[in-house]
Description:
The protein is an alpha/beta fold and 153 residues long. It is built from four helices and four strands, in the order βαβαβαβα. α1 links the parallel β1 and β2 (29-34). 24% of the residues are buried.
Amino acid sequence: MDGRTAVVVGGTSGIGLATARLLSARGATVHVTGRSASRLDALRGPDPELILHQADGTSRQDMDELFGQIGDVDWLVLALSGGAGAGPLASLDLGVLRGAFDAKFWGISRPFRRHWRTSRRPARSRSSAREVPARPSRRPPGSPPSTGRSRRS
Length: 153
């Protein structure tokens, strides 16, 4: 893993922190993000090899700045979450559930989309990043792109 770069979004505790420590122990350069300055500060002593960034995974601006600073990333680990939205379904407030969904959905999609837009380089050997088409192409190879109009008019 020497020479490889990992970003762990939500890596200040739990499985995110355990993953960051494991990747670092195996030789990767590891960037850890978290929203809480106090959690990041608590890692400075026991984990000086981790590169810490205060950033919110749900913030497009924070993710753009983060990936702009780091450059090429070999591994993106999305370990962020929140405690909202837990409990018996019948007693949960719909607004709390919407907020929990937004935090989890945007918390996963924003860092991933930002990383994917800037990491279109060919995958190195043994890399886990692969481009997967959104849907199978129906056009034969070499045919012109679609105009967006359906043939079934």
